[in-house]
Amino acid sequence: MILRPASLKELSRGLSHACALGEKIEWVDLSPLNHVVEHAPEDMTVTVEAGITLLALQSELRKRGQWLAVDPPHAERLTIRELLEENSSGPRRFGWGTIRDYLLGIKVVLADGRIIKSGGRVVKNVAGYDLAKVFVGSRGTLGVVAEATFKLRPWPESEEFVQARCDSLDKADRLIGTVLDSELAPAVLDLHNLDPNSQSPAGFTLVLGFAGTREEVDWQLTRSRELSVGESSSLDYERIFWDTDSPAQRLSCLNSRLADELRRLGQAPFVARAGNGVIYHRAALKPVKPDMPVKLMRRLKDAFDSKRILPEFQA
Predict the structure, then answer these.
(1) Residues 193/269, Cβ–Cβ less than 8 Å
(2) Beta pairing class for 270-273 and 2-3
């Protein structure tokens, strides 16, 4: 069964009907639920329907000099529901955090049609269990996220990117360590091997991004040049890596193991969040299944979707 509700009530009725019939839900299209419910610039919070795309939301917030501080790929088609259910992030994750850090409240329709709420619409909120975080990264297996409230950040006055090209992975690894041990506080700390003009690997490039007031950014640029990271750069490598139909694999590791994991990839294209130990790549490796808390996941599934109407957990 495919649902395309025009309202929260329709979504609730559709799931309730499917649950009563024991019919599995193949997909829920929330594109009609694409409105900003409430934006309180003075409180720096926003409540939105989950069918709105991240780009549409950011464009609306930018009018008031604010933004939701996450930057996953393909914001033009990524909905807020997908952002939450996939726990997506981008290069600014190192400095700004993930979507979990900004989620204040959530409204979810469960498999049996019940509508539940967790959290609220204010930053200082201590009401009840922090159930909202359970649905972040749940991939639609526990319920359908219909509405969410986020805390916001001011749009940075200035943002600049610089890079350093390294002729070996060892040199790049040492430079990453130097940056992490320094006084720098980059919003972006990425390593990639992409040629800006093609999809082919081209050595190793460390990219730093700084954001904040003009004075803060200028100071960090001066300091980064002292560490031999001063060539002007951008996030074009992100566009190059993700603008292809070829799927990417993801692996996570300790920062100290980053270089070792990258060596395993050979010449495959990659983008690594060097400050977080997350690597996206297109190597011909068998995907490594993460060590997941299977028993806990089954307990959650039994509690929220005992009839298995929604998709099952996938490793």
Answers:
(1) yes
(2) unpaired
What is the C-alpha separation between 131 and 148, in angstroms, rounded?
13
pTM of the predicted protein model = 0.90
Q: Write the pLDDT tens digit of every residue in 43-65.
A: 999 999 999 999 999 999 999 99
Is pLDDT at 128 greater than 70 in this prediction? no
C-alpha separations of 135 from 12, 132, 138, 195, 297 in Å: 17, 6, 5, 37, 12
Domains and CATH numbers, the chain: 2-155 (3.30.465.10), 158-281 (3.30.70)
Helix (H) or strand (E) holding 119: strand 115-119
- Please state, in angstroms and as integers, the Cα–Cα distance from residue 121 to each residue in 2, 34, 151, 201, 268, following that order: 31, 18, 9, 45, 44
Distances (CA, A) of 130 to 99, 101, 119: 14, 12, 7
CB atoms within 10 A of CB 263: 10
> What pLDDT does 170 receive?
95
Segment (H or E) for 206: strand 201-212
> Phi/psi of residue 125, each to 5°?
-135, 120
Could you tell me the maximum CA-CA distance found in the chain, to the nearest angstrom?
67
Q: How far, in Å, CA of 181 to CA of 194, rounded? A: 26
Q: Give the model confidence (pLDDT) of 178-237 as tens digits.
A: 999 999 999 999 999 998 765 555 689 999 999 999 999 999 999 999 999 999 999 999
The helix or strand, by DSSP H or E, that contains position 8, with its residue range, turns out to be helix 8-21
